[in-house]
Design goal:
mainly beta; single chain
């Protein structure tokens, strides 16, 4: 076969095929569901006569040289330049005009795809090529399309005229993008489409006169796909967002949210990411809520980051504000937001030293529940200053540490003041592979300077209390065989002694102190209170035993069982206001069990049993079965008996959630969270997911509690994913991951 070699450094436009392949966001494995239907015609063999990748080589069965520098090539005409190759039945090469014209069908191959059309014209000098009635395939992104005409310009640009684009298999073209003009520019990493329709199942679902998008996963300014939602509180919703790629470290999104029952809400979010930190500012404004009869707004600011190159100074802020107490209940979309009673506003400045750190904080709250009395609302900290040690405890050496805290508390119409809390500690740990003994001593001094005290009450009360503890334990292990399986079993007895003398603290204020929830870990804490306003008196011994089953080869924990109890050697006199002193000689017997006998099953359980009353105070059980990423079932039960003089009521709930395939490509999702003590459903939803080669669909109907008064809201969500293009609808991924433990998103 005769071969013509053109040893000139022309950048023939065949290179435009490579731009789509290089811009693919999806890896080849992402299209595993598509099967072998997506293939390109085999690339013909070409025997190159040069090693110069920039040279253009032309080969054919017959070559006829004509006048004027023209050559007519017939029979398997092939054009080759580097990895780019074209084939036609007949072509004319005009050397003087630097033009190649083909008759009939022509095909182009590249490492990333394939292109075919009719009557191609290749302008070698101008680096342009065009062909009509074209079709193309981009292998890496599993994309293909058609066009009345495709124009290739340079190595970076491909222009599609009146074309289509899809990632579906040829025999299952569920969605298609149709555009009057579609320009793909690899140099600018940008795609520009004009007069765009997206059709799903043959039905048009979206149109835009102008649309820009990145060819890779880089960011690009432009309209985002609108989202749709049906809600019992706001009616039908349509949100149209626009994204601004302001700079590599800044971006912003603005949106209009139209609600049939309330009006049009403006939304905006600004994000930044710099070497000093990251953060976001969000703002929502509803000028006239037709249901509320007034304007409504919300603001959120968050920031975290380092302030110096040495990473010593660290700043964090979280500030939220809403215009009215019902804002989240009316305009929020999840139970956690709707049910919150306080909105925090906090700013921290932290310095990390070597083995210690210091923090300055200002903090207050916006109370969203008017039923909460003023005297039960949290205090503002204006400011809080804290210095504490956090170095690693050294074995067989004297360790000295502690912390100091100063706080100024403020709250309207109540007692206010400042508190200074100092607590130096000393310990001498003795640890080995088989045992440990850790004696520890501390001295806590707390002083107040108060305003607006009751008549006759002290303005500057103080308290100084020492604490001494000894933590000790042993480690035993043995080889154990159960049936055909071998394990390593451990036995870990632990004794914790705690002594704190009694000092009357009934005249001290309570700014931020509560009592810790009793649990297995509480057996080994030095204080039953979680703030500085009370130091619990104690003379007690905690006895506990833990056993584990470990896989002998990997050391993976398969089973862990623990049981323990506190033996009180005297009554506890120190209490919070309104609560009696504790006289029991023994605490509740607390036990925990965690088991993963196989990779599919996991069990977590805990129980607290009161031997004095012979009743269960707490009981939690959680069971998960997850054989693979697509299948998971969760079943949980939680019981908490009402504690006298405590602010919490009894709680008894069941929780069932599931994600399970019901047919090929179909998966059901659901949850039922029911409060037995209140005879009401906290949250329930059911939905279906469908996933095929090139598209996926998720539908969810949800009913959830939105207020403490027992009001429920119904919502319906639809999310459509056009793989390789974009998603349409409200993303429910975060919602399902939060509601179904173990749920994995495959969209």
């Amino acid at each position: 076969m005769p071969v013509l070699t053109i040893p000139r450094p022309h950048h023939l436009l065949l290179g435009a095929l490579a731009l789509a392949g290089a811009s693919a966001v999806h890896a080849a494995d992402d299209w595993g569901m598509c099967g072998p239907a997506f293939v390109t015609p085999p690339r013909p063999v070409f025997e190159s006569t040069t090693d110069d990748p920039r040279s253009i080589q032309i080969a054919a069965d017959e070559v006829e040289f004509a006048e004027g520098g023209k050559s007519v090539l017939r029979g398997k005409v092939q054009v080759m330049r580097g990895p780019l190759q074209a084939e036609a039945d007949r072509a004319i090469y005009d050397r003087e005009q630097e033009r190649i014209e083909t008759d009939g069908r022509v095909q182009f191959w590249d490492d990333g795809g394939w292109l075919s059309g009719e009557n191609a014209v290749i302008e070698v000098e101008r680096q342009e090529a065009s062909l009509g009635n074209a079709e193309f395939v981009i292998v890496e992104s599993h994309a293909r399309g058609t066009a009345e005409r495709i124009v290739l310009s340079g190595e970076d640009v491909m222009r599609v005229r009146r074309g289509t684009y899809t990632t579906c298999n040829p025999d299952d073209e569920m969605w298609v993008l149709e555009a009057r003009d579609l320009d793909l520019d690899r140099g600018d990493d940008e795609g520009v489409a004009r007069d765009v329709w997206v059709r799903f199942g043959g039905v048009p679902i979206f149109w835009s006169p102008y649309l820009t998008f990145p060819l890779s996963d880089a960011r690009k300014s432009g309209f985002l796909i609108p989202s749709f939602r049906l809600s019992g509180s706001s009616g039908a919703e349509l949100t149209v967002p626009y994204y601004f790629n302001l700079a590599p470290e800044f971006d912003a999104t603005v949106a209009l949210r139209g609600m049939t029952d309330r009006g049009v809400q403006a939304q905006g979010e600004f994000r930044y990411l710099t070497r000093k930190g990251t953060g976001q500012i969000g703002l929502e404004l509803l000028p006239n809520d037709s249901e509320y009869d007034g304007s409504r707004a919300a603001l959120r600011f968050r920031h975290t980051g380092e302030l110096d190159a040495a990473e010593r100074w660290y700043a964090e802020a979280d500030v939220g504000w809403v215009s009215d107490n019902d804002y989240f209940e009316d305009l929020g979309t999840n139970l956690g937001i709707a049910a919150q009673s306080h909105l925090e506003r906090r700013a921290d400045l932290t310095y990390r030293g070597d083995g210690w750190y210091a923090r300055a904080r200002v903090q207050d709250y916006q109370t969203l529940d008017d039923t909460i009395p003023v005297l039960d609302r949290p205090y503002e900290r204006l400011p809080q200053l804290l210095v504490t040690t956090n170095g690693r405890e050294r074995n067989l050496r004297l360790n000295v540490g502690g912390y100091a805290e100063f706080v100024s508390f403020d709250r309207s119409a109540s007692l206010t003041g400042t508190r200074l809390d100092l607590r130096p500690t000393v310990s001498f740990p003795m640890r080995s592979a088989a045992a440990f003994l850790v004696p520890r001593a501390s001295l806590r001094h707390t002083r107040y300077d108060l305003q607006d005290t009751a008549p006759g009450a002290a303005d500057s009360p103080n308290r100084t209390v020492p604490t001494f503890s000894v933590d000790s334990g042993l480690f035993f292990e043995r080889a154990l065989k159960l049936g055909s399986r071998s394990f390593t079993q451990t036995l870990e007895p632990r004794i914790f002694y705690l002594y704190t003398p009694f000092e009357d603290q009934s005249k001290l204020p309570v700014f931020d102190t509560g009592q810790n929830t009793f649990s297995f870990s509480q057996l080994f804490r030095e204080d039953r209170f979680n703030g500085a306003d009370r130091v619990g008196d104690a003379h007690q011994v905690s006895l506990a035993l833990t056993t584990r089953l470990l896989a002998p080869s990997s050391g993976e924990e398969l089973v862990r069982a623990s049981v323990g109890q506190i033996r009180y050697l005297r009554d506890r006199e120190v209490t919070l206001p309104g609560r009696p002193r504790e006289k029991e000689s023994d605490s509740a017997l607390v036990a925990e069990l965690a088991a993963s006998p196989t990779r599919e099953w996991r069990f977590l359980g805990g129980i607290q049993w009161d031997p004095g009353d012979g009743r269960t105070d707490r009981n939690t059980v959680a069971l998960r079965y997850q054989p693979d990423a697509r299948r998971v079932v969760n079943l949980a039960y939680r019981f908490l008996r009402e504690v006298p003089f405590a602010s919490s009521e009894s709680v008894e709930q069941t929780d069932f959630s599931v994600a399970w395939p019901v047919a090929r490509d179909w998966r059901a999702v659901g949850r039922f969270n029911y409060a037995l003590d209140r005879s009401t459903t906290l949250e329930s939803f059911a939905g279906l997911e469908y996933e095929s080669c090139c598209w996926a669909l998720r539908t969810v109907f949800r009913r959830h509690l939105t207020s403490e008064g027992g009001e429920h809201t119904n919502s319906f969500f639809v999310q459509l994913e056009l793989k390789g293009l974009t998603g349409v609808g409200r993303s429910t991924v975060d919602f399902l991951e939060r509601s179904i433990p173990g749920y994995e998103n495959e969209f």
